[in-house]
């Protein structure tokens, strides 16, 4: 594992964090930090992470084999569930059952399935704003994100008639129209065909770079990681096995990991 490079990478992120945070209005330090996480389900420990941080403006990819605990870690960081033990901090404040709803309002999550409601594309993109009572400037924001994802012409089309790529663009627009402090992506490109995925990844990378949105991505496809991520964590057996840049992980880390620990990754892993 690239422990030295990992810590240098983390130091670099921390030293540069203040500039990015100033742009996004964050205070100093990680946007999200979780410590001493333990998740036990049906008597089995499925996640045990001592310390993990998400820094402002970065795209953090979490990769690992099936059953590694990737999606569980994402749901904990997104405050969709509480760990059995440990604590999650958002912008320096511990997330509790009293403040978790207000914290969730600062986040957005996109899953592998778009989970669109019966209605038009525009109604789906506007949904989160309506649920959160964000009426001021709502239509302008909807128009902006329909245009950014190239689906303005689908605005009046019913969601159930969309192709897989169109539906996922709608789901991403619905998340980003909320202007979340942190965007969580749980394999949102996994069900797309290769050409659709390639085009959407290229556009989405530009959107993330322009918006500076802090993002956590769970993926098994290293082409997605290379296209989007600035930092990668390898998870296996519920524990962090390695951490580094996409190049460090694909070239130096993964080939050295035991086969039982190594993620079953596709799309751009250099051996």
Automatic annotation (TrEMBL):
Q: Name one GO molecular function term.
A: ATP binding
SUPFAM superfamilies from the UniProt entry: P-loop containing nucleoside triphosphate hydrolases
Domain ABC transporter residues, every copy: 32-262
* Keyword terms of this UniProt record: ATP-binding, Nucleotide-binding, Transport
Q: Which Gene3D superfamilies match?
A: P-loop containing nucleotide triphosphate hydrolases (3.40.50.300)
Q: Name one Pfam family in it.
A: ABC_tran
Q: Which SMART domains match?
A: AAA (SM00382)
* Xref: InterPro entries: AAA+_ATPase, ABC_SmlMolc_Importer, ABC_transporter-like_ATP-bd, P-loop_NTPase
User: Could you tell me the superkingdom of the organism this chain comes from?
Assistant: Bacteria
**What is the name of this protein?**
ATP-binding cassette domain-containing protein
């Amino acid at each position: 594992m690239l422990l030295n490079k990992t810590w240098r990478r983390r130091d670099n992120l921390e030293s540069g964090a203040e500039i990015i945070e100033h742009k996004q209005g964050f205070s100093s330090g990680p946007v999200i930090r979780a410590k001493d996480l333990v998740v036990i389900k049906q008597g089995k420990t499925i996640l045990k992470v001592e310390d993990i941080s998400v820094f402002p403006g970065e795209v953090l990819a979490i990769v690992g084999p099936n059953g590694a605990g990737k999606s569980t870690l994402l749901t904990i960081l997104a405050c969709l569930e509480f760990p059995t033990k440990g604590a999650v901090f958002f912008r320096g404040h511990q997330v509790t059952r009293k403040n978790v709803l207000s914290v969730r309002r600062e986040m957005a999550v996109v899953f592998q399935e778009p989970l669109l409601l019966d209605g038009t594309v525009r109604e789906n993109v506007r949904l989160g704003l309506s649920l959160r009572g964000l009426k001021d400037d709502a239509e302008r924001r909807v128009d902006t994100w329909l245009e950014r994802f190239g689906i303005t012409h689908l605005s009046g089309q019913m969601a159930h008639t969309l192709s897989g790529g169109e539906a996922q663009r709608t789901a991403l627009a619905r998340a980003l129209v909320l202007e979340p402090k942190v965007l969580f992506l749980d394999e949102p490109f996994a069900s797309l065909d290769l050409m659709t995925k390639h085009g959407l990844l290229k556009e989405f990378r530009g959107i993330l770079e322009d918006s500076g949105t802090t993002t956590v991505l769970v993926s098994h496809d290293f082409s997605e990681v290379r296209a989007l991520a600035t930092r990668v964590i390898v998870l296996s057996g519920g524990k962090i096995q390695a951490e580094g840049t996409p190049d460090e992980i694909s070239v130096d880390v993964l080939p050295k990991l035991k086969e039982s620990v190594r993620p079953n990754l596709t799309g751009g892993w250099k051996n």
